[in-house]
LicD/FKTN/FKRP nucleotidyltransferase domain-containing protein (Floricoccus penangensis), 277 residues
Amino acid sequence: MEDNQRRMQFVELDIFKEFCKIVEKHNLTYYALGGSMLGAVRHEGFIPWDDDIDLGMPREDYEKFINEYYKELPKNLKIRNFKTDSTYRYYITRIQDTNYKVIEKRNKDIESFTYISIDIFPLDGLPNNKIRKFVHENRVMYHRMKMALGNFDTIDKERKRNLAEKIIISISKVIPVTKIFNPNNEKYKIDSLLKKYSINDSNFVSNMMGAYRKKEITPQSVVGMGETYKFEDTSIRGFKDYDKYLTSLYGDYMKLPSKEERTAKEHFEILRDDIDE
């Protein structure tokens, strides 16, 4: 596990560095999210037992990157999202290194390979009115649920879930939900909803397509102007008040998880690479 995971981390770090070259050249903004921010604060790099990099970009910069600036990436790096590939399951964008083929461990089928990648999430605003904010959040979550059910065959059914999700998954094992919901249609509906509110006019910065859903709604006061943190042999930008951000996601974020939980964080396994050692 350790060799496979560390090797993946180094490839992801190289992808990140290429991404940063474009960000700096065009004066774009990004922030480390979730486990990447936790890794920067607690480990000054990757969480040793984790194998991904999650970044968020304000919507305006995100659109510039996925529509134009991605073309400046090296030839082995490709972007993938629901607009570039109708078979892609997710809403977010991935920058993939096509030299490294991997398989998602939760999908046992060898045909479902992908490539080592980093994840880029768009960051959007929310209504400042409490009622409108509540309605908007739940509309997004409703369409996210329909998108997930449309991709039911690839849902990670082993992941820890709340009671409501467990009930929905149990029902979906009986009802042919993949024939009822069209995940691509739902992605476009989500896209339209998220773009309605700019972070420039909002009291919040939202990443509701992240793993923690509504928990990834962050007050502007926590984001601030951002801050630079050590990350492996380079640096990474994150929210200014990292303590409030990480506490809202993880609680006591400096406490290490059990060995069993650490093992569960390995998502991918390298099948092959096209790089001469």
